[in-house]
Design a protein that fits this description.
2 helices, about 190 residues, 5-stranded mixed β-sheet, alpha+beta, 2 domains, 6-stranded antiparallel β-sheet, Thaumatin
Amino acid sequence: MSSLFIFHSFLKAVLLGICTCTYLKMKFPAILEQRTGFRGFFWKAAIIGAKLSTFTLNNNYPSSVWPAILTSSGPPLSITGIELPLKASSFLDVSATWSGHIWARNQCANVNGKFQCQTGDCASSQIPCNDVGGIPPVTLAEFTLAANNVHVLPSTNLSIVAPGLMAYSYAYDDTIALASCTGGANYLITFFP
């Protein structure tokens, strides 16, 4: 029984260390920049402790859409564009320090070996956008997770519903378009006509 308590105490100490490193990395990033050696151990603990948010992308548009992702700051996502068939969902895990845009492209096709979309195209000639933004008209969902802000910047191609936001709201003109959420939140992003 005593070894169980020792392990329990050890586990508490490890979790406390991870949380402390994560906090220090967020507040004082220069302290944990070194990724090797003794300080590298604490850098790794901070990465492990970073909260993740999950974006759930839903397609309520009457046909396939191709959501695109552009990272502004924070760790880049491995996925920068996907096909999302009618009524399908996809999930993306992002770090709590991620900032960027998500939008949907529609009326897409492969033309002479190049992927092209009528709206929201990123001109990458393929489904992944590879860190290239959308060509207007495009409705953007803009996320700054570290500051807990979500904006929807509307246009005419598709509508987006994000947490409590409608795509026809203007980010800086009214309080509806700017939402503040707690860190580590999960977001449901729905594309519709």
